[in-house]
Design a protein that fits this description.
Oligomer: heterotrimer
Chains: A alpha/beta, B mainly alpha, C mainly alpha
Largest interface: B-C, 64 and 58 residues
Helix content of chain B: over 70%
Mean pLDDT of chain B: 86
Structural class of chain C: mainly alpha
Strand order of the largest sheet of chain C: 1-2
CATH architecture of chain B: Orthogonal Bundle
Mean pLDDT of chain C: 84
Structural class of chain B: mainly alpha
Strand content of chain B: under 5%
Number of helices of chain B: 11
CATH class of chain B: Mainly Alpha
Number of strands of chain C: 2
Order of helices and strands of chain B: HHHHEHHHHEHHH
Largest sheet of chain B: 2 strands, antiparallel
Shape of chain C: globular
CATH topology of the largest domain in chain C: ABC transporter involved in vitamin B12 uptake, BtuC
Low-confidence stretches of chain B: none
CATH architecture of the largest domain in chain C: Orthogonal Bundle
Largest sheet of chain C: 2 strands, antiparallel
Number of helices of chain C: 18
CATH topology of chain B: ABC transporter involved in vitamin B12 uptake, BtuC
Helix content of chain C: over 70%
Distance between the termini of chain C: 45 Å
Shape of chain B: globular
């Protein structure tokens, strides 16, 4: 039981549509796992079930915290799941547009800090120290992600690629053990994608997180992933190393048709 | 028994008026996702226009039926014109704004129109002429249903029927349904979305004006504030039936009308409005999709 | 050629509005006496006014398009970057507010007190609407809770103003949470309607539950605040209430300022910006929403107590939806989330109709128009908000404490 995330038999329905059908998945510590499949295969739905946005119909989600404690995530609200150490980005960027870049990251620190209303009003030493810690650690993350120049810009004014990176920075601020990236390279040009490729590797090494990513850019997926899960019509159709998956006939069929 | 029937029919009458106004809320919501807060004011303006024109014609010495027809037409034309103009001024520029912006604009518009009518006319209650004649054949039933109740019920039924036919079978109706489903897509396939939206406001306003005319004649007095309460109640009806759903609005209107009628008749008349507000709060909390509405899945 | 075209279009707009306003603006009927007054001058007025407004808007639109960008938001940045000017301005305002009741009449002091009360109400609602993005249309209910708390506590138990002030605030906060619970799951626009419903329900209960609230006739003879047990004369009491209001305004600004610049305040803004992302960042939506409702209601409760003490008489008619609408339009005009904007807007909205009598009748008409106009032209309010910047490694030092207010107010 070393897996950081262990999902068994996860299913989800939308009306009569079976969006996820009995999906199993596991992620080991510090592993980069990719989730691929044609559009509508249920990948984002899978993420939404993991992070508590949709309640799954059946199946179990277990996560192991860095302390070694196993906990079941089914039925928890999204914020509790984030507090347990799972952070995510969104397929269509969901930053806080009217806040600055730094503030976006500072929000990520919310669940690791505790100042309340009274603390905010009276500002005792502990609260001031906490605020300082939030600012410093947010700066640090932004520096590592190459966003130092824009810390005080409004998030909505950032170029697209930087917005994607800011989403990752914000997720990192929640101090996750597992980072879920939903199509991080979508809309990026080849150069930006190559940079992202390096960045994701770097994040895994520096923050010692496991990464589960949904991505359509096969070059990125093949070069980054330790293992790949392939989904189609809500079912898992293959799993293995990039080399194995590339040769798998079911995968080839799913992508290229008969 | 007569008391029960009396409450039942007055509930139905109320319900038809709520339904007529609720249709405007529900159609606008279905198409642009906005609670048109100023819709109650359209109804009020419809009633006021009818009153003004009717009084004018009375002074000019016209007879009953002609007054009813002309003032009714004027009410509908003016309500439609106001609905159209309000959309162009207060909502169209905000179509891509965050959700609260058009709502605040709508609240502002509602306050503006109330005070516009109050300042230009009066803040007092004005007696509304009894435009609907008393039919002789209704005499035996007068204990529990009056002629105006009958007229209101029939008019509502006809209006609903026409609306249903329009939405089901005409080109414009089809365009409306398409726009309600997916505005972007409707635009791409060549539907003039602006026209559809304007048309929706116009239809909703005409229905509200009919409601305004009928109820004003039934109750016998109006003032600038009638739109506020009626608007909220009709909105309650729309939500009750499932906002965005046309049969839902009608169903919701009748349920609310009957509930109010029986609650005030058998429980207490002091809390008349509390029943409606309480019902509204309860539905929104426990079943925000209403009776016939489908729940929306949040897209992430 | 273009100009002629614009004139033609504006002319058509004017015709349209003349048609639109014809029955209501021109014909005035008196159905009882069967009298009809024709007011043709109104028609001319509408025509001329709508022609010029339409023409000006067209020109402005053209100018804006050619200028390619919107004019930069009016901000107080210039002032805050110049501490000297800022402090002198602050000193002048402070001095003026201190001597105000002594140089102006009791009547004017009383008006100013009302204005200050609206400042607090605006700032309180600003927490809920401006920061947390929860459109609360029943805000006046908490105001009523505060006012009735004091009136009833005094009537039944003889409690004084200063004891009732915190109790009223806490009761209002409790009501805020009570109201907050059921509406937590609701989307923005439904929330607005439900809060409106709640507000009306509370008012209707106050109106009809005679044993509890004395119904529409209200409660009279509520004592004015006493100063260390001494009962003041009417004139002295007016001045005293003014200073209490002033003190509360300063207190409110202090607290709201610190709140919006804290972990909780940031969470509120995040909630406003994107609810789903906010939760995904580990923020407990429930708690943060309830906190916003409670904090917003607290101020309304406090002002309610002060209102009861100031007027010595309250009845349900003071707590209608229109009151909520006025407070909302203050927040909208001031710019959601901007403290100084709300202060200016509240003063403007209360004082302008008082001092320009001609305005008084058109007050609500203008409020409505302002709400529509602001949403279309300047959704950010009269004073644009500048996000605070943080500096690495020296944010919490004493140095920032000193400069804090400057940057944070804006």
């Amino acid at each position: 039981m070393t897996a950081i995330l262990k999902v068994t038999g996860l299913s989800m329905n939308f009306g009569g549509l079976r969006a996820l059908d009995d999906v199993d998945l596991r992620v080991e510590p510090r592993e980069i796992v990719a989730l691929i499949g044609p559009n509508g295969a249920g990948k984002t739905t899978f993420f939404n079930c993991l992070t508590g946005i949709y309640p799954p119909v059946s199946g179990t989600i277990f996560m192991r915290a860095s302390s070694g404690k196993q906990s079941r995530l089914n039925g928890l609200p999204p914020n509790k799941i984030t507090a347990k150490g799972m952070a995510r980005t969104f397929q269509n960027i969901r930053l806080f547009p009217e806040m600055t870049v730094l503030e976006n990251v500072m929000i990520g620190c919310h669940c690791r800090t505790s100042a309340g209303i009274l603390g905010a009003v009276f500002r005792p030493r502990a609260v001031r120290a906490e605020e300082q810690r939030i600012v410093d650690s947010s700066y640090k993350i932004l520096t590592r992600l190459g966003l130092t120049d824009v810390v005080n810009d409004l998030a909505r004014n950032l170029p697209y690629g930087a917005q994607r990176r800011l989403e990752i920075a914000r997720a990192l601020a929640t101090e996750p053990a597992l980072l879920l990236l939903d199509e991080p390279a979508a809309g990026m040009n080849p150069r930006e994608t190559a940079e992202l490729n390096q960045l994701i590797g770097k994040i895994r090494d520096i923050y010692e997180v496991a990464i589960l990513l949904i991505e359509h850019d096969m070059k990125l997926v093949m070069s980054l992933s330790d293992r790949i899960y392939v989904m189609e019509y809500g079912r898992r159709i293959a799993v293995g190393t990039p080399v194995e998956v590339k040769k798998n006939p079911a995968v080839i069929k799913a992508y290229l048709g008969e | 028994m007569n008391y029960f029937l009396d409450l039942f029919f007055s509930g139905l009458t109320r319900g038809s008026i709520y339904a007529l106004i609720a249709l405007g809320y529900t159609m606008v919501y279905g198409i642009i996702g906005l609670i048109n807060f100023a819709h109650g004011e359209i109804y009020m303006i419809g009633a006021f226009t009818a009153l003004i024109i009717a009084s004018l014609l009375t002074v000019l010495g016209m007879n009953g039926m002609a007054i009813l027809v002309i003032s009714g037409l004027a009410a509908m034309v003016y309500a439609a014109a106001y609905g159209y103009t309000i959309e162009k001024i207060a909502y169209k520029p905000l179509r891509n704004s965050p959700r609260l912006a058009p709502l605040i604009s709508a609240i502002g518009m509602s306050i503006f129109l109330q005070n516009y009518v109050m300042l230009a006319q009066t803040s007092d209650f004005l007696p509304f002429p009894d435009l609907i004649p008393n039919f002789a054949f209704m005499e035996p039933y007068s204990d529990f249903i009056g002629s105006s109740d009958l007229v209101i019920l029939l008019t509502t039924a006809v209006a609903m029927l026409l609306l249903t036919i329009m939405i089901k079978y005409t080109r414009m109706g089809r365009a409306m349904r398409a726009t309600a489903q997916d505005m972007q897509m409707a635009m791409l396939v060549g539907i003039d979305v602006n026209r559809v939206i304007s048309f929706t406001f116009i239809i909703g306003s005409v229905l509200a004006a009919i409601g305004g005319l009928l109820i004003a004649s039934h109750v016998g007095q109006i003032n600038f504030y009638i739109g506020f309460i009626a608007g909220i109640k009709a909105f309650t009806a729309a939500v009750l039936g499932g906002i965005g759903s046309i049969p839902g609005a009608v169903l919701g209107g009748f349920i609310l009308g009957l509930t109010e009628s029986f609650a005030t008749g058998y429980v207490s008349s002091d809390y008349e409005d509390v029943f409606a507000f309480g019902l509204l709060v309860l539905i929104l909390i426990f079943r925000p999709s209403g009776i016939l509405g489908r729940s929306e899945n949040q897209k992430v | 050629m273009r100009i002629i075209n614009e004139i033609k279009k504006s002319f058509l707009v004017a015709l349209w509005f003349m048609f639109l306003t014809f029955p209501i603006m021109v014909i005035k009927v008196n159905p009882l006496e069967k009298l009809i007054v024709w007011r043709w001058h109104n028609l001319a007025m509408v025509g001329i006014a709508s022609f010029f407004i339409s023409f000006l808007l067209r020109c402005a639109g053209r100018w804006r398009k050619s200028a390619a960008r919107r004019p930069p938001a009016l901000t107080m940045k210039g002032l805050s970057n110049n501490p000297r000017a800022y402090y002198s301005a602050l000193a002048v305002i402070a001095l003026f507010s201190l001597v105000f009741p002594f140089i102006f009449s009791a009547y004017e002091t009383s008006i100013m007190t009302t204005a200050l009360m609206y400042v607090i109400l605006g700032l309180g609602l600003n927490i809920v609407v401006g920061l947390a993005g929860l459109l609360d249309l029943g805000y006046v209910a908490f105001y009523a809770v505060g006012a009735y708390s004091y009136a009833l506590l005094n009537y039944h138990f003889g409690l004084g103003f200063w004891v009732s002030l915190p109790i009223g605030a806490m009761l209002a906060a409790a009501f805020g949470i009570l109201l907050g619970f059921p509406v937590l799951r609701l989307r923005g626009d439904y929330l607005a309607i439900v809060t409106l419903g709640f507000g009306e329900i509370i008012r209707l209960i106050l109106e009809n539950w005679n044993d509890f609230s004395f119904g529409p006739s209200g409660i009279a003879n509520i004592p004015r605040p006493s100063l260390f047990g001494i009962n003041l004369s009417l004139a002295a009491s007016t001045i005293y209430v003014y200073f209490i209001a002033l003190l509360l305004v300063i207190f409110t600004i202090f607290v709201v300022n610190r709140l919006q610049d804290s972990r909780i305040g940031r969470a509120w803004i995040a909630l406003r910006e994107d609810e789903i992302a906010c939760q995904a960042m580990g923020i407990d939506k429930t708690r943060i929403k309830l906190a916003a409702f409670a904090m917003g209601a607290t101020w309304a409760g406090m002002v309610g107590v002060l209102f009861a003490a100031k007027t010595t008489f309250i009845n349900p008619a003071s707590f209608t939806f229109m009151e909520s609408a006025i407070i909302l339009s203050i927040v909208v005009l001031g710019g959601m989330g901007s403290i100084i904007g709300v202060v200016i807007a509240a003063l403007l909205f209360v004082l302008l109709p008082e001092y320009l009598r001609a305005f008084a009748d058109y007050r609500m008409l203008l409020f409505g128009a302002v709400m529509v106009l602001m949403m279309i032209v300047r959704p950010q309010g009269i004073i644009g908000k500048v996000r605070r910047t943080y500096v690495r490694g020296q944010v919490t030092g004493d140095k920032r404490q000193k400069n804090g207010i400057i940057t944070n107010l804006l």
